[in-house]
């Protein structure tokens, strides 16, 4: 294949390469040890060393270099896996290039021509690469190898595959990397040595691109405490992106259902494709950059120039088209970008064929002229058709009218239509206070900006916009700009009347969320006059309750009340609702749920940034977890909870424009400002005090708010000893020093750290479960750890290939630790057949159902880890009496308990409390409490014993012992019946026997002559058989069973 020309150094390369052919301008080389005169393994090792020592070399054993006679510089331009492939490239160069090179005079021109030609060939190959990638025949062959090598269930969907090297220790294994929906697999077979690796995506702790002394660039995967490195990939970046997407997809589907349910494009695990993942990633990046609703997908991209009126020149960039939006971003992404909702487009003028240009007319007398658009006619047609679809009666109104009308359709009188700050602190126009004058100057600056760059949804976003944001937004414009920058203005426009309907529907509802909301209402900015009145409290209640009703998966979480209070101060009630939607569902994903995963991920990102930007602080405080704990409220409340309100709103301004990047920058600036004090502190408490005093000293000298509205400091009242810090200067310093942090890098860091955060939470859950269960069983901690991994894997096996499994539908991370992972009967039967010690329960044996029914204590059709381990503990470590009692109870009828295998419905907290109380009061069951076993049940009990003993070295002796016990029990029962015959009508024992028979009724009328046995009789008889006692008291090696189960778990699923 042709390679992008790269300069290489040949000083030591001739020791690793042999020249096969050469001429005046080109050299064809073969790696030593490969091909004639060398073995395959030698060729692989030499090739690997070559890739390690020479960053420009590829995995292929043949290459072609370009050079000129008067230059010592060589350029790699092609490589090949086989000699036939590289010879084809060589012949093409001889026939098409060599003659042309003779016309050039200088070596620079020759090299420039060759490089340009090779780049052209690569571009042509790139056009055809998609066809090759989707070649059905080639992919079918790869899928057959995938199924043969890894023996995964046929439902497992192969997404893509790559040739690469896997580093096992210091030795690389050349093979194939297969990426499927649920697994990362690698296979290599060299000289009789087979390497096979299967890692499920949900087991990965870390996934990142790395480079070190040995590996110039590789992909690092951490799973089960082991490091795995994959290198020498031809398309390493593409491979990494696909791996990252599959890991994220698995995390969302299996651990974080709240996020996954918002991804309809990836709802079916059997339909995931490489092309689908790439399209989803592009759409996600598109929505994030332009702050668009989740329903939007990137449909078309056009490269073009846009005439920028305020700069009077054309800027190069890309037009991005979705279902309802036309967006443009300049090439560097920061110079300018614009978002045009299709509902705002009033006309598309006829395209100009000479400059391939079209003009889009937007309401508000704005026109956007795009030029040099390759397919300009198609773009114009698409915009026209989409505008026709999106057209609404509101199009006849002016832009100013739309701003007022949108979302207010059918507004209820109960909904506040004014921002609380307008009600409780109206601006005095005649006030000539210096602060008010400065506020007016800010408003004038923004009005000038609006006149140049536009106002409303079609405004240009530029560097100047950010500069104005950093200086502070005027009080009067804050709500409007928050709506614009967050994208909430589009949400509200697309859902007119939605909020009013929600308020009416949620009015009077009583849930756990509404109870928590009522408790926190009066804790939300209690110092502010707006929330000392019923007006503010009622508006806050309506917004929070409506959101809890809209999104019950989140419901209500602490910190939402503080954030919503500030939103209500500057935005109308309905606008505050949509701002809350934008924050919770787009800008701070997964922040406001019970596990606050999003906040923990961003704290991990924050730690990484501290290491990069504040090394002096890192050297002093090696454990950065302190900053995670102290900064949690910074992220959850956007600094509102630690800064005075008049200063915090400036931070919120930056957040709505730049997203989480603004919070990270400010956090770094705060730590740097207090660097010297933090370095000298001796413990965490002192550091907390330093930061608290600092936040108390932050002021907003330009705030026009009166003292009654401004928030008093909550820390040390002795502020005279600590000078003040102006919030505008602090924010400006944060942008100057840390403005280089790019949003794209933050998103990459988020993805990288999310795996580690999720797995850390999962590991904490596991440790808590093991700690609880270890008090009930005799397994060691390491054995419980392996059992938990098997149990959790079995839970996931029911989720990998379907979205409708009971285990997945009823998985709720907010439940108690023991209840988070549970098995239905089908999953239980598979795992129990792998781990039970005597192989008496096959997956299709009804006895397996009896075991499930017995250990499912709450009869909900799901077995948790504790119930499962307690059953195994009896079978492995219980006394002879306990093991026998377990087997005896298996054959008792279920009585009037109905077992439903459909899984748990809505969580009943009262039921949990009652169950917990019953477990506390539960008494130890004695053998006298067990009912008698009847004739049919005893026969089945005997059959179970026979199946347990089957295959044992002493099988014959055990069978004879069971037969002897059965005969003895029958004779005892017969003698007992004869003794009772004369006094059957008056004997109390007879009535007891009769009542016990009644309690054991299984639907058939038992004759009065049918015999039955008590557990004491069965136990006493079996104790007289030493061979049986020895069998049950013989220890079983659970460690071996665990190893076998781990190896067979997936295969058993395959065979089912």
UniProtKB/TrEMBL annotation:
Region annotation Disordered: where it falls in the sequence: 978-1001
Any one of the GO BP annotations: glomerular filtration
Domain EF-hand as annotated: residue spans: 843-878
Matching SUPFAM superfamilies: EF-hand, Ypt/Rab-GAP domain of gyp1p
Compartments it resides in: Cytoplasm, Cytosol
TM helices/strands, residue ranges: none
Low complexity composition bias: residue spans: 983-999
Gene3D superfamilies tied to this protein: EF-hand, Pleckstrin-homology domain (PH domain)/Phosphotyrosine-binding domain (PTB), putative rabgap domain of human tbc1 domain family member 14 like domains, Ypt/Rab-GAP domain of gyp1p, domain 1, Ypt/Rab-GAP domain of gyp1p, domain 3
Protein name: TBC1 domain family member 8B
Organism, as annotated: Monopterus albus
């Amino acid at each position: 294949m042709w390679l992008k020309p790269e300069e290489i150094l040949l000083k030591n390369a001739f020791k690793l390469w042999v020249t096969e052919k050469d001429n005046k301008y080109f050299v064809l080389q073969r790696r030593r040890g490969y091909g004639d005169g060398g073995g395959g393994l030698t060729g692989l090792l030499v090739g690997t060393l070559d890739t390690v020592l020479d960053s420009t070399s590829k995995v292929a054993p043949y290459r072609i270099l370009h050079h000129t006679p008067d230059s010592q510089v060589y350029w790699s331009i092609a490589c090949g896996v086989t000699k036939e492939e590289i010879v084809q490239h060589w012949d093409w160069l001889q026939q098409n290039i060599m003659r042309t090179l003779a016309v050039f005079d200088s070596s620079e021109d020759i090299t420039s021509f060759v490089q340009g030609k090779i780049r052209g060939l690569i571009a042509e190959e790139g056009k055809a690469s998609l066809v090759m990638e989707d070649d059905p025949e080639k992919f079918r062959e790869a899928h057959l190898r995938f199924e043969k090598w890894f023996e995964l269930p046929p439902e497992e969907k192969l997404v893509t595959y790559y040739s690469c090297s896997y580093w096992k220790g210091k030795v690389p294994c050349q093979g194939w990397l297969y990426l499927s929906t649920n697994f990362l697999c690698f296979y290599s077979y060299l000289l009789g040595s087979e390497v096979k690796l299967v890692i499920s995506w949900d087991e990965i702790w870390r996934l990142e691109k790395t480079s070190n002394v040995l590996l110039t660039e590789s992909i690092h995967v951490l799973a089960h405490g082991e490091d795995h490195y994959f290198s020498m990939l031809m398309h390493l970046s593409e491979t990494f992106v696909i791996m990252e997407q599959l890991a994220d997809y698995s995390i969302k589907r299996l651990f974080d259902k709240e996020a996954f349910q918002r991804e309809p494009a990836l709802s079916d695990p059997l339909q995931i494709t490489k092309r689908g993942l790439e399209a989803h990633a592009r759409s996600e990046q598109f929505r994030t950059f332009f702050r668009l609703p989740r329903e939007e997908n990137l449909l078309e991209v056009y490269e073009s120039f846009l005439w920028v009126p305020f700069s009077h020149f054309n800027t190069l960039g890309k037009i991005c088209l979705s279902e309802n939006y036309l967006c443009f971003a300049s090439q560097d992404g920061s110079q300018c970008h614009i978002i045009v909702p299709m509902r705002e487009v009033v006309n598309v003028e006829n395209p100009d064929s000479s400059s391939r240009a079209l003009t889009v007319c937007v309401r508000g007398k704005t026109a956007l002229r795009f030029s040099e658009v390759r397919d300009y006619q198609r773009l114009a047609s698409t915009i026209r058709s989409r505008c026709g679809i999106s057209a609404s009666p509101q199009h006849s109104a002016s832009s100013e009218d739309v701003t007022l009308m949108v979302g207010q359709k059918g507004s209820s009188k109960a909904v506040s239509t004014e921002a609380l700050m307008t009600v409780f602190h109206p601006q005095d126009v005649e006030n000539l206070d210096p602060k008010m004058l400065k506020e007016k100057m800010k408003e004038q600056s923004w009005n000038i900006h609006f006149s140049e760059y536009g106002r409303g949804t079609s405004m240009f976003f530029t560097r100047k916009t950010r500069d104005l944001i950093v200086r502070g937004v005027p009080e009067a414009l804050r709500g409007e700009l928050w709506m614009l920058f967050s994208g909430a203005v589009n949400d509200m426009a697309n859902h007119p009347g939605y909020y009013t309907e929600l308020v009416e529907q949620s009015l009077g509802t009583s849930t756990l969320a509404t109870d928590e909301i009522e408790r926190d209402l009066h804790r939300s900015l209690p110092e502010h006059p707006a929330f000392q009145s019923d007006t503010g409290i009622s508006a806050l209640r309506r917004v929070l309750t409506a959101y809890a009703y809209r999104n019950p998966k989140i419901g209500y979480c602490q910190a939402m009340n503080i954030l919503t209070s500030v939103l209500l101060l500057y935005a109308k009630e309905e606008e505050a609702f949509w701002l809350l939607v934008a924050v919770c569902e787009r800008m701070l994903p997964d922040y406001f749920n019970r596990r606050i995963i999003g906040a923990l991920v961003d704290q991990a990102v924050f730690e990484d940034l501290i290491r990069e930007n504040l090394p002096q602080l890192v050297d002093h405080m090696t454990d950065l977890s302190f900053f995670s704990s102290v900064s949690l409220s910074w992220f959850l409340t956007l600094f509102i909870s630690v800064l005075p309100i008049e200063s915090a709103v400036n931070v919120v301004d930056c957040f709505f424009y730049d997203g989480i990047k603004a919070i990270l920058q400010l956090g770094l600036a705060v730590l740097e400002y207090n660097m010297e004090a933090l370095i000298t502190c001796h413990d965490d408490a002192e550091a907390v005090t330093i930061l608290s005093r600092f936040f108390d000293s932050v002021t907003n000298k330009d705030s026009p708010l009166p003292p009654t509205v401004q928030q008093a400091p909550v820390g040390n009242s002795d502020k005279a000893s600590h000078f003040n810090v102006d919030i505008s200067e602090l924010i400006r310093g944060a942008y100057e020093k840390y403005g280089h942090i790019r949003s794209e890098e933050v998103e990459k860091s988020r993805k990288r750290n999310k795996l580690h955060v999720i797995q850390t939470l999962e590991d904490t859950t596991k440790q808590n479960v093991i700690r609880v269960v270890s008090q009930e069983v005799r397994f060691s901690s390491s054995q419980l750890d392996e059992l938990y991994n098997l149990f959790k894997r079995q839970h996931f096996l029911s989720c990998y290939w379907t979205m409708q499994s009971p285990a997945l539908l009823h998985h709720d991370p907010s439940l108690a630790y023991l209840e988070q992972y549970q098995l239905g009967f089908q999953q239980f039967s598979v795992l129990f057949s792998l781990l039970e010690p005597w192989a008496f329960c096959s997956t299709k044996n009804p006895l397996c159902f009896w075991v499930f029914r017995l250990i499912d204590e709450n009869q909900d059709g799901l077995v948790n880890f504790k119930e499962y381990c307690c059953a195994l503990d009896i079978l492995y470590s219980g006394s002879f009496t306990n093991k026998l009692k377990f087997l005896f109870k298996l054959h008792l009828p279920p009585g009037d308990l109905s077992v439903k295998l459909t899984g748990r419905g809505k969580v009943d907290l009262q039921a949990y409390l009652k169950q917990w109380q019953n477990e506390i009061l539960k008494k130890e069951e004695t053998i006298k409490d067990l009912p008698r076993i009847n004739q049919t049940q005893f026969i089945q009990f005997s059959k179970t014993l026979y199946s347990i003993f089957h295959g044992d070295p002493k099988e014959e002796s055990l069978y004879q012992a069971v037969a002897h016990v059965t005969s003895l029990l029958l004779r005892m029962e017969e003698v007992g019946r004869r003794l009772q015959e004369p006094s059957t009508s008056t004997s109390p024992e007879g009535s007891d026997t009769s009542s016990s028979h009644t309690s054991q009724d299984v639907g058939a009328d038992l004759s009065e002559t049918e015999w039955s046995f008590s557990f004491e009789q069965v136990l006493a008889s079996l104790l007289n058989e030493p061979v049986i006692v020895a069998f049950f008291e013989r220890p079983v090696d659970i460690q071996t069973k665990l190893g076998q189960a781990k190896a067979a778990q997936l295969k058993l699923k395959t065979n089912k």
